[in-house]
Amino acid sequence: MQYNLLAFSISIISLIFAWVLARWILRQDLGPKSMQEVAQVIRTGAKAFLKRQYKTISFISILLAFGLLLVYGFTGDWLLGWQTSSAFLFGAASSAIAGVVAMTMSVRSNIRAAAAAQSGLPSALKVAFRGGAVSGIIIVAMSLLGISILFLIYEWLGYEIIKIPSLIVGYGFGASLVALFAQLGGGIYTKAADVGADLVGKVEAGIPEDDPRNPAVIADLVGDNVGDCAGRGADLFESTAAENIGAMILGVALYPVFGIKGVLFPLVLRAFGLIATMFGLFAANAKENEEPMSALNRGYWVTSILATVAFYVVTEQMLGNVLFFWAGVVGILTSVVFVYITQYYTEARYRPVKEIAEASQTGHATNIISGYAVGLESTGLTVVTISAALLGSYWLGNQSGVEHGGLYGTAVATMGMLATAAYVLAMDVFGPITDNAGGIVEMSKAPENIRKITDKLDSAGNTTKALTKGYAIGSAALAAFLLFSAYLEEAHITMVDLAKVEVFVGALIGATLVFLFSSLAIRAVGKAAYYIINDVRAQFKEKPGIMKGTDKPDYARAVDITTRGALKQMILPGALAVVVPIVVGMWLKAEAEAGLLMVGTIAGILMATLMNNGGGAWDNAKKYIEEGHLGGKGSDAHKAAVTGDTVGDPFKDTAGPSLHVLIKLLSTLTLALAVLFI
Amino acid sequence: MQYNLLAFSISIISLIFAWVLARWILRQDLGPKSMQEVAQVIRTGAKAFLKRQYKTISFISILLAFGLLLVYGFTGDWLLGWQTSSAFLFGAASSAIAGVVAMTMSVRSNIRAAAAAQSGLPSALKVAFRGGAVSGIIIVAMSLLGISILFLIYEWLGYEIIKIPSLIVGYGFGASLVALFAQLGGGIYTKAADVGADLVGKVEAGIPEDDPRNPAVIADLVGDNVGDCAGRGADLFESTAAENIGAMILGVALYPVFGIKGVLFPLVLRAFGLIATMFGLFAANAKENEEPMSALNRGYWVTSILATVAFYVVTEQMLGNVLFFWAGVVGILTSVVFVYITQYYTEARYRPVKEIAEASQTGHATNIISGYAVGLESTGLTVVTISAALLGSYWLGNQSGVEHGGLYGTAVATMGMLATAAYVLAMDVFGPITDNAGGIVEMSKAPENIRKITDKLDSAGNTTKALTKGYAIGSAALAAFLLFSAYLEEAHITMVDLAKVEVFVGALIGATLVFLFSSLAIRAVGKAAYYIINDVRAQFKEKPGIMKGTDKPDYARAVDITTRGALKQMILPGALAVVVPIVVGMWLKAEAEAGLLMVGTIAGILMATLMNNGGGAWDNAKKYIEEGHLGGKGSDAHKAAVTGDTVGDPFKDTAGPSLHVLIKLLSTLTLALAVLFI
Q1: Which residues in chain B are closer than 8 Å to A505, comparing Cβ atoms?
Q2: What stretches in chain B show pLDDT beneath 70?
Q3: Measured between alpha carbons, how far is residue B547 from residues A207, A341, A646, B444 in Å?
Q4: H/E element holding B559?
Q5: B417-440 b/e with 16+ CB inside 10 Å = b?
Q6: Which chain A residues contact residue B526 at CB under 8 A?
């Protein structure tokens, strides 16, 4: 059977499905004119951001593609240079398109979800979640499609199938590179706009959040789209791409055992995961009076169960060994456990968030110490889960008696974890859609009952956003081990001996890279925020009518200025992430580079977990107090909690998510440039 | 020549020198009765703390010694069990004595330094610094003496010299264990008392710092002694012990090249470092009107230069290869570079601290973000320095043409860095002495001109405390690589292959251990602070006369309650640090344990650097504003800076210094228990 044709066909079918779904969304009611006006401005702002951002990213990508070509060429293989740099550009372009699609759908669904809220929560949920689903499916299907196309092209050119995976590693690198800058730029932008809008609106001018008189308010709403949709879209696009390529390279190493089936197995699995997601989607329709999270969870369970069944069938068919199915189940379970860990550390009904809220009573400093301690603590369960998953799936694979079976077991676990990627991504994009719907309802001064519905959706969206981050870091950790092994294959080394001084130094530098990158990322938010703060102050001065409501602020100008500020600030951390691994690899060679990669990944996993969970816990401790606990809004405890929330913002929305991408960029970069380090 | 007798003799001479110095200090004037009363209470409190703390630590040590015996016994070697557990107890007792000595001298020097301030700064500086020097010399000399004695005993018992280093690894483990609990307990105590005294005194009762009406004020002054003297004393005791043993084990591996000289080389070097320190000490006498730091720096340079000369002579004599001398110079230079890095990141005249102070103007949150970013950033230069030192000394050693010469080169660099340990330790203990002298002057209501002198000394003490932390982490990092190699020798493994799944999991757990330990350590401060806060509140209620000045608070009760709180809180993080490596080693075996050790060390170095420098920078940003910049005391910026300072306290005085010890405990523990993991 032509398995790559199968994967190709399913990805085409998924894209058609997404297209039908998108048309359904576009047919939905746009609501009153007041809403449409607001949505229009958000859409324009988001478009302006993307345009400027992708101009910068394109420039960087073309530069790097050219560098790749030269580097391969001068080390003696111009053909491979052309192949790698074309794959790189193809990956970069696909990743960029994935981001644009996610964002385009999001800024069209938000207004329709707001309008649907007029006829009740179930319809609003349906529109918002389907909006997310279009993005989720398109992103995963496109990543599959891109690899399938490359595969088919090289097959048609007469290449041996087991040679192909190495030729397309550039695709993963291109996708990661775009994802890094998309997530970093988006993350800086979204928090700079958020902090700036709050500081200059709430604090200085004394007007409420989402007040249309604040010139920064649209920039803030645009921010949710560029950070969560475009950024996370590109992130998960490259995750699935990188993991597919890595697993295929491992499949090549196992060619004597499974033949071509081992190489194509990841693609087929991914394809069936897409089908499971489509069914799960329909199970997520809410009943009247049902809580949004309960409906979304039902869909998740349906997807997971169907994915498990598909897993069983595909494993039996292609690998003929039930142990690998169980390794996949380990991966699926891991994703479920991660969801619960994230909830435990970031929801107000558990001990950690309550502890932070209580610590807020004794002041700002105790709130910070407590939240930071919670973030640090949350790495414990996270690592226990990852360790158990790695050891468990390795053991299962090993029991199969296949040579290198253990390693392949961990690869299959990763595939299990990523089987539900499209559904999880749909939940993630659901977040900014509902957030924006709430903003639109607020700004268009819609009646109270509609506002209540969008508030409920918004709160569910906050939960799904947090869960996705936990999922993303878990899958990055699991995939990392697989990508290490692929790198070792490509670099022709068989071990990574930390007892060698240069490997240890590489490891030390890898971990430090994570610390420096985090430092630059969180600092960038502060610097970019000054751009918008200064502009808002200037607008208030230029047009005194804005505050009286007689004059309209220039939203677009605020968006544009913030965009420029954010993009300027993303260059330094982005460059660091690309330059350091290349320098270390060329100077200390392949094994030291592996040390950098592995220990950088470990540090990245821990730091991202700390940042995501710490940030989420601070956020919800504030919300817990705002709900009326411990003195409620306006109390001293609340003020301290606001400090924690503000500190947590760049942690969880800028540095944390960018670290996920950094981890994977390290893997794909080393994979694509392995020849240089030998 | 009997090199071990030489080391033994020099350590005895050093102890005599310290004894003479101590008698000189005890002969100094005690000042007016008002001062003596205050000093008496501090001394009693410190004694009470130590007594209770060492009771707990003795219990834990005896338990562990028994465990060691059983574990060795049941794995088949009862004799080695007895040897190891006796060495363990000997090391533990020596480390405890080192802590007690440092503290005893400190609580006797503080009052004399305060009294000497009456006749000018030079005399006060002399008394305070000599007080520190007694501790510094005794600690380093005792560590040398302990190892020399064990060596002489085993030689006398007829053991082959190259077998001996392995028999005394228990000594290092015992010393580290006591150091961990001493530093952890002391660090928790000191910050709990500090935070508690401030919160309940300054904030609730509205009385100034060091006001005698505050029942917590003595507990606060005691805290500086138990954290910085006893804690850091035990820390540097075990550093020198562990590094000596590690280098000797490496010397054994090089026996074919250098013979017995390679094994004893570290001891002889350390002995000459002691002599260099004694001369440096006399060079540190301040001239009239000289800044304290300038005098201390002069002494440091004299010590460094003499140590370098001694290094040259000893290397020529014992190793006969000048390349190893240059490796030692790399180490000495590394310690100098670390001093400058620490200054750059924690002193107000450079960019980082200024940046934090400026960020304080926009509120608490921006202060925190900025300080955290600075802490993260400071890992960059730190790691570049460590990497350069490791690669440089390895390269030099390798050039010698000696087998394993590269490794021995890094060992010699470590010895170079630690050559000035006694002098650095003297500067460190100088910190709490001056701090206490200031407190005594304040509480005894001495005249303004004396207060100015002790303030100046106190400020120099803050600088030296910060420098020592940088030095401690640098030497821990450099020594780590040497101790890894010693572990590999003991565990009979030749590599640490991160590409193996169990080694990777070990590495992941090692890094996480650092995060969890930090979480528990900083959280412990908050928990222990509640004990003292509650007691002070109770005292104010029970005796309303305290606030009016008609009744005296019960200082001893506050000390005792805080002590109990702090000791209770040190158990969990301490147990974690001991149990996790043992479990991982026994379960995943020697190579995975090496992964835990190495990557745990990397994470520990980075996290400790972040905590120390971040904390120091926050502290000085506050002081910078208090000096009148950006609105000065009482401004909003100042309030935000106080938040940063409070967050930084448990970072730099509890978690950071405890992490140094954790790193070395990992090394000595794995070294002592290596047989279990094979």
Answers
A1: 387, 390-391
A2: 1
A3: 44, 49, 39, 17
A4: helix B555-626
A5: bbbbbbbbbbbbbbbbbbbbbbbb
A6: 359, 366, 369-370
Domain spans of chain B, in order of start? 2-23+34-487
Distances (CA, A) of A236 to A140, A241, A300, A350, A647: 8, 8, 17, 29, 26
Contact A229, A375 (CB under 8 A): no
d(CA B465, CA B187): 14
How far does chain B reach from its first CA to its final CA, in angstroms? 37
> Do A187 and A203 contact (CB within 8 A), yes or no?
no
Q: Look up tokens 């002098």; give the residue.
A: B423
Q: Helices marked H in A543-655 — which ranges?
A: 545-548, 555-626, 636-650
Distance from C-alpha of A125 to C-alpha of A341, rounded to nearest angstrom: 25
What local confidence, expressed as pLDDT, does residue A397 receive?
93
Q: Name the residue with tokens 């519905």.
A: A453
Q: Cβ contact (<8 Å) for B643 and A509? A: no
Percentages helix, strand, coil for chain A (3-state, rounded to 5) are: 90, 0, 10
Residue by residue, DSSP assigns A360-373 as: GGG-HHHHHHHHHH
Nearest to A498 among B377, B390, B598 (CB): B598
User: What ipTM goes with this model?
Assistant: 0.93
Question: 3-state DSSP call for residue B321?
Answer: coil
Q: Which residue has the tokens 């990574």?
A: A496
Using a CB-CB distance cutoff of 8 angstroms, which residues of chain B are in contact with residue A387?
505, 508-509
Q: Which of B372, B408, B513, B591 to mutate to test the interface with A (most CBs of A within 10 A)?
A: B372
Say if residue A519's pLDDT is above 60: yes
Give the other-Cβ count within 10 Å of B375's Cβ: 29
Q: State the pLDDT at residue B547.
A: 83
Quote the pLDDT of residue A1: 53
Backbone angles phi, psi at B289, to 5 degrees: 70, 10
- Cβ-defined contact of A502 to B391 (cutoff 8 Å): yes
Residue of B nearest to A387 (CA): B505
